Amino acid sequence: MNDMTESYISLTEVHPYQRLLSYPDNNPTQQEQVLRQLHQLGVECLLATGPVQLAGHPLLGVGYCGLVIAGIWRGQAVAIKLRRGSCQQANLNEEARILRQANLLNIGPQLHCHQGDLLVMERLSGQPLGSWLQHLGAEDAPELCRKLQRLLCQGFYLDTAGIDHGALRCAAEHVFIDGERLTLIDFSHSSTNRHPNNVTSLVAGLLWGTRLAQDIRRVLSLPERDALLPRLQDYKRQPDRRHFQALLHAIGLNEQEA
Ligand SMILES: Nc1ncnc2c1ncn2[C@@H]1O[C@H](COP(=O)(O)OP(=O)(O)O)[C@@H](O)[C@H]1O
Ligand SMILES: [Mg+2]
Description:
The structure is a single chain. The protein is an alpha+beta fold. About 40% of the residues lie in helices and about 20% in strands. It is built from 9 helices and 12 strands. β8 and β9 form a beta hairpin. The structure holds adenosine-5'-diphosphate and magnesium ion.
């Protein structure tokens, strides 16, 4: 994904980009501290690239909790998440801890390292599920079925491991598609202390009442809420493989093909 348009930002020269290192406040002391942390973690440089613009600078993404900036760490393309001042969490330690657990299940972008207010993780290529869906037509139904199966399976693995992702109702932006690979991102709302609701949140967001559901229904015919409710309730009561498979089957999907 690196190309000639990605301009290299050294960590040792003062650069207008540094403004983003303490967003939304413009706090030079904090910016210096972030630069020191990046350096200590082994980040070689930042890259001015990405689909989002903030204060005139391109970056990979902006959320409520963090800014995500491209960079190079030990020669690899990475995404660096910096905690924003507006973030509810005091630091990104819990997000890092849970992302590491998810990585053990082969879920999420690989976390390379972290420190207090920043995460250094694998930089994903591809695009969010919401925009990927825009380009699908009726002939892509089998491919979409495979993606939904694999997405729900990842939700099931997280449920089984006791990790609640916490933001899967917004699957349009929190699922990245890169060819065959499908990656859940943003563990900033995750918890291992509440009942995991990954499968049920995904089903609700994918099937009913969202823009995403409308886009999926352009390509696939899916059951209405009342028809699926008994299977969802069974799974909620007892979230085991048998009930998960029955739920997939009722949606018209099949775990074996995942
Ligand atoms: N590993 C990554 N590789 C590429 N882009 C990413 C990566 N992680 C996040 N992004 C982009 O940055 C955006 C914001 O990141 P996210 O973790 O959702 O932040 P927040 O917790 O603030 O919502 C995402 O919606 C996505 O577009
Ligand atoms: Mg987010």
